[in-house]
């Protein structure tokens, strides 16, 4: 389903929403207990705070086509295969094209990576329009929801721009206008992201607005803002935002066991979504954990396995192992619960403190604050059961390499971090061209961006294709 379908289906959707709104109490929707109902909003439904919160609940629902746009594990698969984290067993599957760098504008694997975020952006824009200047809700609620939705919208644009480069900047629900938008530049998209996030920082408080850490607070906005500034090379801004989060008493790291990092109400969590339904928990677990006696569909590469030092507990806790016909296979195992009945419950982690600590470490190294950078790296290493790195006579390049290595092992299989790190070319040792040419064939500089889906270009002839895919 694409944005085009919203207009012709809106009457049916509105009717469905009115029915759903009668099934769930206002209190449950506000608290977002469990996995909330999902639906597409319409301006006419923002009649009071209850209907506003009904729309907000849908945004955080763990459903990629009707709620949260990154809940199908496809981003993890695509970026893991594109980088050096994963290989695919079935070379004929459409995801194998990410591993071999043979994507085309007609590849099935790219469709959801483009469509689902834009569908979600439409919902976010609809809510923003519904609460702006709305006399039927309080100013404080409008301010809160505006801040939350701007964090969500910034998240979608951040991942769109890092996968596809410049993309259309859709900021309203005006279908006629949006249908023929050209691609905005990468710089324009990043400027918009930072503006949204700064507005969110100003609008949100440090307190979470409902139970758990499902809806963004001020530190959630800062987490993404620190990441954006890191990618843009604004080291001081990245450092300051990360430092503010790390200094908050809301979050913990050292005392959070590796096994508990992704659990519901993890102290390390900055933003996580409830995923449990009547039949399953995360799609990540469903995708990566094989059935008994079956070969995993996606394997951890020997390259990544070799990066874990002896005694690294992350290798034991976060990478699974199975033997089939006397052959050993290793697979991602950060999320361990496939069925709804497994306990304790896991939530889908979007931001956690471990990433923020490594963000501060990288920014500190670029600011020539080597003491702080090494200190942060050692905090992460200590929890993993590793010895501390000593500071004696380490150059900036040495420290940056240490940070990037720790990012590789700490953040593997999370939100494309490794693929984006390779493309950022922080150091020669971590550049995509160096690493991927070493152990994979087919990589070329134009592989750094995915092609724009041809179906979208057929609908909008103003969408120019990325280099290398014409």
Structural features, described:
- It holds the Pfam family SusD-like_3.
- This is RagB/SusD family nutrient uptake outer membrane protein.
- Keywords: Cell outer membrane, Membrane, Signal.
- The protein is built from 20 helices and six strands.
- It has a two-stranded antiparallel ribbon with strand order 1-3.
- Helix 3 packs antiparallel against helix 6 and helix 15 runs antiparallel to helix 17.
- The chain has a domain of 319 residues: Serine Threonine Protein Phosphatase 5, Tetratricopeptide repeat (Alpha Horseshoe).
Regions with little confidence, pLDDT below 50 for 5+ residues: 1-41
The CATH class of one domain: Mainly Alpha
Separation of the first and last Cα atoms: 25 Å
Count every beta strand, where a strand is a DSSP E run of 2 or more residues: 6
Order of helices and strands: HHHHEHHHHHHHEHEHHEEEHHHHHH
CATH third-level topology of one domain: Serine Threonine Protein Phosphatase 5, Tetratricopeptide repeat
β-strand amount: 5-15%
Rg (CA only): 22 Å
Q: Report the principal-axis shape.
A: globular
Spatial strand sequence of the major β-sheet: 1-3
What's the number of helices?
Answer: 20
Please describe the biggest sheet, giving its number of strands, its sense, and whether it closes into a barrel: 2 strands, antiparallel
CATH-derived architecture of one domain: Alpha Horseshoe
> What is the residue-averaged pLDDT?
88
Q: Structural class, from helix and strand content?
A: mainly alpha
- Provide the helix percentage: 40-55%
Protein name: RagB/SusD family nutrient uptake outer membrane protein
Keywords: Cell outer membrane, Membrane, Signal
Subcellular location: Cell outer membrane
Family: Belongs to the SusD family.
């Amino acid at each position: 389903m694409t944005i085009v379908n919203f207009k012709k289906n809106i009457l049916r959707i509105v009717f469905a929403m009115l029915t759903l709104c009668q099934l769930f109490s206002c209190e449950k929707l506000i608290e977002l207990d469990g996995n909330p109902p999902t639906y597409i909003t319409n301006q006419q439904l923002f009649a009071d705070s209850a209907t506003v919160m009904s729309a907000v609940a849908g945004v955080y629902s763990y459903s990629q086509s009707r709620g949260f746009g990154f809940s199908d594990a496809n981003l993890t698969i695509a970026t893991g295969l594109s980088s050096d984290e994963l290989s695919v067993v079935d070379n004929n599957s459409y995801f194998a094209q990410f591993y071999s760098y043979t994507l085309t504008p007609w590849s099935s694997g790219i469709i959801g990576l483009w469509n689902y975020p834009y569908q979600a952006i439409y919902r976010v824009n609809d809510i923003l329009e519904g609460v702006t200047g709305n006399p039927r809700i309080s100013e404080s609620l409008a301010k809160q929801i505006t801040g939350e939705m701007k964090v969500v919208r910034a998240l979608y644009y951040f991942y769109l721009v890092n996968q596809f480069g410049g993309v259309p900047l859709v900021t309203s629900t005006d279908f006629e206008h949006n249908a023929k938008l050209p691609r905005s530049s990468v710089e324009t998209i990043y400027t918009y992201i930072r503006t949204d996030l700064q507005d969110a920082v100003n609008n949100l408080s440090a307190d979470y607005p409902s139970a758990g850490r499902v809806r963004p607070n001020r530190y959630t906005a800062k987490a993404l803002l620190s990441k954006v500034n890191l990618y843009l090379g604004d080291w001081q801004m990245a450092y300051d935002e990360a430092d503010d989060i790390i200094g908050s008493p809301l979050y913990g790291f050292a005392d959070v066991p590796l096994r508990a990092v992704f659990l519901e109400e993890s102290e390390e969590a900055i933003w996580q979504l409830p995923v449990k339904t009547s039949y399953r928990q995360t799609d990540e677990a469903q995708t990566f954990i094989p059935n008994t006696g079956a070969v995993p569909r996606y394997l951890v590469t020997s390259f990544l396995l070799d990066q874990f030092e002896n005694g690294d507990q992350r290798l034991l806790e976060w990478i699974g192992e199975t033997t089939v016909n006397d052959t050993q296979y290793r697979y991602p195992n950060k999320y361990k619960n496939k069925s709804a009945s497994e306990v304790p419950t896991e939530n889908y982690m979007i931001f956690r403190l471990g990433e923020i600590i490594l963000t501060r470490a990288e920014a500190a190294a670029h600011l020539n604050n080597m003491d702080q950078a090494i200190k942060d790296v050692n905090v992460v290493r200590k929890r993993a059961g590793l010895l501390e790195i000593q500071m004696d006579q380490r150059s900036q390049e040495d420290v940056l390499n240490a940070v990037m290595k720790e990012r590789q092992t700490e953040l593997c299989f999370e939100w494309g971090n490794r693929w984006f790190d390779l493309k950022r070319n922080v150091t020669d040792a971590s550049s995509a061209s160096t690493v991927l040419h070493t152990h994979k064939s087919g990589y070329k500089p134009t592989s750094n961006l995915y092609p724009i889906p041809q179906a979208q270009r057929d609908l909008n002839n103003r969408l120019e294709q990325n280099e290398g895919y014409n």
